Amino acid sequence: QNAAIAFNWYKKYFGFSAIVFEDKACAALMTRYTGGDVQQRYAVLAMNMQGGGGFEIWQYTSRTPSAPKKAFQLGDTGVNTVKLRSKDILAAYQLLKGDGSAMVTPISDGPCGIKHFYVKDPFENHFEITEDTYWFAKNGHPVGGVCGVVIGVSNIEKAVQFYQNILGYNMVLFDKEDVFDEWEQLAGGKKRVRRVVLQHREKYSGPFSRLLGPTTIELVEAKEGFTNKIFEDRYWGDLGFIHVCYDVNRMKELGKVCEKAGYGFTVNSESSFDMGKAAGHFCYNEDPDGTLIEYVETHKVPILKKIGWYLDLRKRKTIKPLPDWMVKCMGLGKKSLELAGQ
Fold first, then answer.
1. What pTM does this model have?
2. Burial class, 201, CB count within 10 angstroms (exposed 0-12 / middle 13-18 / buried 19+)
3. Between residues 194 and 321, which one has the greater pLDDT?
């Protein structure tokens, strides 16, 4: 509902302090998911430069965003939870428990034997803080960037095929059907579910691969009780996790793979689009339950905005990672929002 308030909370408690872009514009290409009308929006891409994916904090400026019509439960189809890495799980737990504005579960062992806990932020979004050894850099904050998501699905076998064949999560780390004690305090956590955790066998490639790091996809299928579609009768951009975004190389080749598999692009910017000081080519498709996946091939990115230094990746002939020092410069820019207090 308020991007500035959300950004300040995520900056303090999750360490997402680096602003890659900040942009006010209309979502002209997304009318398929916004009721057929072009909607105005404000967006900011915030990163935790210790390593991991970022948050695109997205706010409608042309309408009041809608909350889910039915209370969320684990296993509802769509993005259930975002996973954040932590180098000090106890310090992260104490920081979030001391805040008082968020619901925090006890630390427990996750499905792969790694310590983790869950937190619901003041905006009703669920996050999993999980112990991790991968770090791009260190700045003293106990929480790092995004290292995966939990997605509710209606048919886990069909969903596994999508995430393996389209997104390359070709290694199964965990596959079990049970009632899980660690979810007891979460809505819908007392029912029987099947959980499958997937990971890439190969290392990532691409300019920002070392910053973004390895990720997992955890798929959850409820085996008892009723489930809902999280974004049923709502717009993309309404409250919650609206999509999962991937940094990609060779978008046209990816498009052919998706089309052949029966999951062709539903949105395609075709050529370069601008988001403030960043630019690229973006596309969307849907997983078997309609959960939106975005793919972005970055064309231009600000490295050091203070001196007007922008990198045009279209001139680059390799998909090897950018030098670490260059990527770290991205975190030296602006730390506050123009629309603070909006």
1. 0.93
2. exposed
3. 194
